[in-house]
Structure formats: structure tokens, C-alpha cells
Specification:
By secondary structure, the protein is mainly alpha-helical. The protein is built from 11 helices and no strands. The chain has one domain: Butyryl-CoA Dehydrogenase, subunit A, domain 3, CATH 1.20.140.160.
Length: 207
């Protein structure tokens, strides 16, 4: 009997009662979901990651075969982010994440942003973007997700995602220049990858 290997095969096996297939899916995507939250709410990254996978377990039959499981999972994560802020009295109803940034929603200084080094500057700049723009940047550059899958996560047309990516890059460079006008320009690709590695779960970062 052939062992399931890709996400859709694993999901089908999990749906049909194979717990080990579900465990494989969680292990495969844990680091990405953890990084998604740690780049926005580092103090709550563990809690929100657990909530995301718990919601995935509870709603596994709602995933429609033929779609991207990864897009479905990040969609749950984005909803958990919304619910987190709503639970703290923030107004983040439909469309708010395309206007409000993490700095607007959670202005307390982050322990991750403690040094004026490249990855700290980049994280600080990312947190000044509207949250959905931050999510688009992360999914494209950290997760190498196609725009059509990003569209499924954010709930917007692919053309809108393409425009948001362009605007997000421009806003990011403006914010980096504003932070340190005299600093040399960042190597965006390299800095983005270093930041992604630094936000990985502790067990992943040690590998």
C-alpha cells in the first residue's frame, strides 16, 4: 500500500480516520504557522498556533478537496488573528486588516524588535504595514505561495493581491528609509530570509 505524501492525500487519509496522516500535516506546517504569528504577536505565537491547528482538527471535514490545504490552513490562522484582536475590544471587522497595522492594533513594543539590525528593522517595518499587506509579503517571500493561494487566504481576487504586493513592497521600503534615513539599503531578499529563520520555532531554529 502506497503511503500518502502530499497534502491532499494526507488530508484525505486524515479525514478517513488516519491520525498519523493528521500528525504529519501538523508537523509539516507547524513552523510556517508559528512564524506567521510570531511576526505579529510574538507573546501569543504558541497559543495562536495551537488554536489554529485545533480549529483545523475540529473543522477538517469543511476543507474542500481540490483546494490548497496550505491556503486553507493560513486562512484559519488569519481568522484566529482577527478573533484575537476582537477579543481585546479592537475593531477589526471585515476589511480592517487591509487598513490597520500590527502597530495600530498592538502598539506595545515587541521583545523581538530589540536591536537596530537588519532583521529587527525589517520586522518593525513589516508591523507598520496594514496586516493583510504584511500577510501577503510573508506568504509570498517566506512561504513561496502562489498569488492564487494567497488570494484564498486573504479572501481577495488575485489581481488585488498582486496590487497589494506591489504597494506593500513600496511601503516597506519607505518605512525602512524613514526609520534610518542614512542607513544603507537592505538586501531585501536576504534580510527577508534571515528574518523568517529567526522567527521559526525554537526546535526549527536549531536545525
Amino acid at each position: 500500500m502506497r503511503v500518502a505524501t502530499d497534502d491532499l492525500e494526507l488530508w484525505r487519509a486524515w479525514r478517513d480516520g488516519d491520525a498519523s496522516a493528521g500528525n504529519t500535516l501538523v508537523e509539516r506546517h507547524f513552523a510556517s504557522i508559528y512564524r506567521f504569528f510570531r511576526g505579529k504577536l510574538p507573546v501569543h505565537a504558541d497559543e495562536l498556533t495551537q488554536q489554529t491547528f485545533l480549529a483545523c482538527v475540529e473543522a477538517k471535514t469543511r476543507f474542500r478537496d481540490g483546494n490548497s490545504f496550505r491556503s486553507y490552513l493560513f486562512g484559519i490562522a488569519r481568522n484566529k488573528l482577527l478573533h484575537h484582536f476582537e477579543g481585546r475590544g479592537k475593531s477589526v471587522r471585515a476589511g480592517a486588516l487591509s487598513r490597520l497595522s500590527i502597530m495600530d492594533l498592538a502598539p506595545s513594543p515587541s521583545g523581538v524588535v530589540a536591536q537596530l539590525e537588519d532583521r529587527a528593522r525589517l520586522l518593525s517595518a513589516l508591523q507598520c504595514l496594514p496586516v493583510d499587506h504584511q500577510i501577503v509579503i510573508e506568504l509570498v517571500y517566506w512561504e513561496h505561495m502562489p498569488l492564487r493561494e494567497v488570494a484564498g487566504v486573504v479572501g481577495a481576487p488575485e489581481g488585488t493581491i498582486k496590487s497589494r504586493l506591489h504597494r506593500a513592497r513600496a511601503q516597506l521600503h519607505e518605512e525602512l528609509s524613514r526609520q534610518r534615513p542614512q542607513a544603507p539599503a537592505l538586501d531585501f531578499e536576504a534580510a527577508t530570509q534571515r528574518l523568517a529563520r529567526s522567527l521559526a520555532p525554537p526546535r526549527e531554529a536549531k536545525r
